[in-house]
Write a structure and sequence with these properties.
The complex is a heterodimer of chains A (137) and B (308).
Chain A lengths: L14 H14 L12 H8 L3 H13 L3 E4 L3 E4 L9 H20 L4 H16 L10
Antiparallel strand pairs in A: 1-2
Helix pairs in contact in A: 1-3, 2-3
Chain B lengths: L4 E12 L2 E12 L3 E5 L6 H8 L7 E6 L2 E2 L5 H4 L2 E4 L11 H9 L8 H10 L13 H13 L5 E4 L8 H15 L5 E5 L3 H7 L2 E6 L2 E7 H7 E7 L13 E6 L3 E7 L3 H10 L4 E5 L3 H8 L15
Parallel strand pairs in B: 3-8, 3-9, 6-7, 7-8
Antiparallel strand pairs in B: 1-2, 1-4, 4-5, 9-10, 11-13, 11-14, 12-13
Helix pairs in contact in B: 4-5, 5-6
Classes of the chains: A mainly alpha (137), B alpha/beta (308).
Chain lengths: 137, 308
């Protein structure tokens, strides 16, 4: 499963952050689902030809966000969505990032309705991949 | 074991005539890391490496590898160290078999002949080929196989990927990752390709005009070196005074600063107290950071990386 991870060392984004971003996105799109095992640190390091500490750092970052869980001796697994943590600060940060996008949208002449529709379409790209299950709030 | 230092220099210095090639360098490389040794041309990388290996006599200072003085490395210690020279200089008149036989005598009891044979086969080389008939890339491949086969505890490589194509460079990086995953191995390699350094290294040493400017975790360097642009409504001040300022370039309404070890909150404060209308933290990749960090107008500034 590691083959879809693509890293670019010349990027201004550190390599560990590129891994975090791609795995997070795969989880959001349900390409990786609860219980799926991530490749072992050393295996992924060898495959991507990067330092094992970089992979370990990415995994521990994902673990801090509770997206994955490491079980000693058996590996790192995608967490059950019920374990995902979110607090007021996360919601705040999300709102601020949305503000940036809304500002840009309005600046290039989009209307509120266009923006809302666009946001819904983009979200559907993630959610439609999840197997129909109604999300329980 | 974790904090054990495998390579240490103290005040290591080499003059050529009255010119400093290496100027009082203090380094500590812990076991288990891959350390990228970077510096511009003529910064002193090769001289430093030769001093560490005891191939040159220092004008002053000391250097220790695996706890043993570099000037007096015993055969038993040398056996635990692999060295890849710049340009992969090998005996041209030997063929690959002869070269292997020659090399393995320096590593009695630890030469992995099967591994060597597999690598040579993987590279599509034939053991009968004479070194002088090999291309640059093939010579580099032989030299990589020779360096890895004794399974060295400490591997030192002087710009091993210089002039190699992307595929062979990747083989070198792969070889480094393979080595580092064995228990207790350490690698120091110099390179001009910052993308490669970022890929495989977890420590970085920056040398500039013979002086060590940074010796820290790669991630620390990535986080600490920042470019901040302050924009002013009227004219930008001639200068700002802040700790961690490496250099500052001024245009009429903007100041572009390179800062080291200043966190984002401090940057916001700085922008406010300087009276900037707005500020922007620019994204930099490792190469940008290296170029800014070693830019001539910031030279001579030394930071205490252990405190950043």
């Amino acid at each position: 499963m590691a083959l879809w991870i693509q890293i670019s060392p010349g990027s201004d984004k550190p390599i560990y952050a590129q891994i975090v971003e791609q795995i997070s996105e795969a989880i959001a799109k349900n390409e990786l689902s609860a219980g799926d095992k991530l490749p072992a640190v050393r295996k992924l390091a060898a495959e991507l030809v990067i330092n094992p500490n970089t992979v370990a750092r990415a995994y521990s970052f994902l673990e801090q966000g509770k997206l994955v869980t490491t079980k000693t001796g058996s590996g790192t697994f995608v967490s059950d969505p019920r374990l995902y943590s979110r607090d007021a600060a996360d919601i705040n940060m999300l709102a601020e990032r949305m503000d940036t996008l809304i500002t840009r949208g309005l600046n290039i002449g989009l209307e509120a309705g266009d923006l809302a529709a666009m946001f819904r379409d983009r979200t559907n790209k993630f959610v439609s991949k999840q197997k129909s299950e109604e999300k329980k709030k | 074991m974790i904090d054990e230092v495998v390579l240490e220099t103290r005040g290591l210095t080499k003059y050529y005539g009255s010119v400093f090639a290496v100027d009082h360098i203090d380094l500590k490389i812990p076991r288990g890391c891959i350390c990228g040794f970077v510096g511009r041309n003529a910064a002193g990388k090769t001289t430093a490496i030769k001093l560490m290996l005891g191939l040159l006599n220092p004008t002053a200072g000391t250097s220790k590898l695996l706890g043993c003085d570099s000037a007096a490395l015993t055969p038993a210690i040398r056996q635990r160290i692999g060295y890849v020279t710049e340009g992969h200089r090998l005996f041209g008149w030997m063929n690959i078999v002869e070269l292997e036989r020659f090399q393995r005598t320096f590593f009695p009891g630890q030469w992995d002949g099967k591994f060597f044979a597999e690598m040579i086969e993987y590279f599509g080389l034939s053991k009968k080929q004479k070194i002088k008939h090999l291309s640059n890339g093939q010579r580099a491949q032989v030299s990589l196989a020779l360096a890895l086969s004794p399974n060295p505890e400490l591997l030192i490589m002087d710009d091993p990927t210089l002039g190699l194509d992307a595929a062979i460079r990747r083989q070198f990086l792969s070889g480094m990752i393979e080595i580092i995953m064995r228990e207790g191995r350490t690698i120091l390699f110099s390179s001009h390709i910052l993308g490669d350094v970022e890929r495989v290294a977890d420590r970085i040493v920056v040398i500039d005009k013979g002086v060590i400017r940074a010796d820290c975790k790669l991630e620390q360097f990535r986080t600490a070196v920042k470019k901040v642009i302050l924009a002013f409504e009227d004219s930008a001040p001639l200068q700002v005074d802040i700790d961690g300022l490496l250099h500052c370039r001024r245009s009429e309404k903007e100041l572009a600063m390179i800062l080291v070890g200043i966190n984002d909150d401090k940057i916001a404060e700085l922008a406010k107290s300087a009276g900037a209308e707005k500020y922007h933290i620019a994204n930099m990749n490792l190469e940008d950071q290296f170029i800014e960090y070693t830019a001539p107008d910031g030279r001579g500034k030394l930071f205490k990386w252990e405190e950043i």
